[in-house]
Amino acid sequence: MQQEFSTQNWYSLREFNNFLYDIRYILLFYVLGDFITTAQALSIGIEENGFLALIIAEFGVWAFFVLKLAFVFVVYWFYKDLMSSSDSQMSEMWPMVKGVITFVGVFLVVNNLMVIWGNFGILQLLGIGSL
Q1: What is the CB neighbour count within 10 angstroms for residue 6?
Q2: What is the pLDDT of residue 40?
Q3: Who has greater pLDDT, 74 or 7?
Q4: pLDDT at 113 over 80
Q5: Distance between CA 98 and CA 68 in Å, rounded?
Q6: Span 70-107, pLDDT tens digits
Q7: How far apart are the first and last CA of the chain?
Q8: Cβ contact 124:113 at 8 Å
Q9: HEC assignment per residue over the chain
Q10: How far apart are CA 56 and CA 52, in angstroms?
Q11: How many Å is the Cα radius of gyration of the chain?
């Protein structure tokens, strides 16, 4: 028995596609950029984040990518909650949340590139971390 593609399913798919387009910079920097540069930086040194170091040591670098994808689904849940809210302040919060996550992604990519090319990160440069 073949299941028909209902209008509700079509709406959900379209909504998810709109969400993916809306978070394209999060996907580019926070998910792909951080994953690729972290994987490359691991060939030079070690992961400084203790939790991620444990996950990567136990399950491999692809587990880190799975965590990134799980984060995207958490953001989607948050997005749906914010966008379905009748409170205008809640729906106006989405651009800020999206911007913060994108900023974190850019920060992580730049930090990883600095580790790859200069053997130090942004926090060490600012004197917050150890060299």
Answers
A1: 9
A2: 94
A3: 74
A4: yes
A5: 15
A6: 999 999 999 988 888 777 777 788 999 999 999 999 99
A7: 63
A8: no
A9: CCCCCCHHHHHHHHHHHHHHHHCHHHHHHHHHHHHHHHHHHHCCCCCCCHHHHHHHHHHCHHHHHHHHHHHHHHHHHHHHHHHCCCCHHHHCCHHHHHHHHHHHHHHHHHHHHHHHHHCCCHHHHCCCCCC
A10: 6
A11: 18
Confidence class for position 5, pLDDT limits 50, 70, 90: low
Residue 22 identity: D
Residues contacting 9, CB < 8 A, separation 6+ = none
pLDDT > 80? residue 48: yes
CB under 8 Å to 24, separation ≥6 — which residues?
Answer: none
Tokens 């999206």, residue located: 98
The pair of structure tokens assigned to 13 is: 């798919």
* Contact residues for 113 (Cβ-Cβ < 8 A; gap 6+): 37
**Residue 127 corresponds to which tokens in the numbers above?**
């004197």
* Cβ–Cβ under 8 Å, residues 34 and 68: yes
Residues 60-69 have a mean pLDDT of: 96
